[in-house]
Specification:
136 residues, mainly alpha, 75% helix, 0% strand
């Protein structure tokens, strides 16, 4: 059951892109709230990659992916600013947020394209081959 659920989560097209985007945005809001409630020494910034990867994997519209990317960066920077991070670490953190988030989006989009292409190829291969008749 767990394996089936994980397979569905990792397969683009199984869930509505808009539903995934809404759930991911709520997840980012929850991460932001938890990050603000914890001490500055406890950093939850790495958790933003999970909802962002879900958006990049399940949302076909590139504007949704861009909006998820921007929301993730805004939440991370907002937390750093509210926690009073000095300028030099803030700039370094912002660059790390940006580059790591970009990497996650590119990898998830590449996985999406490969999975969708393979699914399309399988469906057209099945349609092209005649059904085998069973011999009795």
């Amino acid at each position: 059951m767990v394996r089936t659920l994980l397979h569905r989560i990792a397969t683009p097209g199984v869930f509505s892109g808009k539903a995934v985007f809404a759930l991911a945005a709520l997840t980012m809001a929850a991460i932001l709230a938890l990050d603000l409630l914890t001490d500055a020494e406890i950093r939850l910034h790495v958790l933003y990659v999970f909802p962002m990867a879900a958006i990049a994997l399940h949302c076909q519209d590139k504007l949704d992916v861009l909006a998820g990317f921007a929301l993730s960066l805004i939440c991370q920077l907002f937390t750093s600013l509210l926690q009073g991070a000095p300028t030099a670490p803030l700039v370094t953190d912002a660059l790390v947020f940006f580059v790591s988030s970009l990497l996650v989006v590119f990898l998830a989009r590449a996985a999406r394209e490969n999975l969708m292409e393979n699914a399309h190829r399988l469906s057209t291969d099945r349609a092209d081959k005649p059904a085998k008749r069973s011999r009795r």
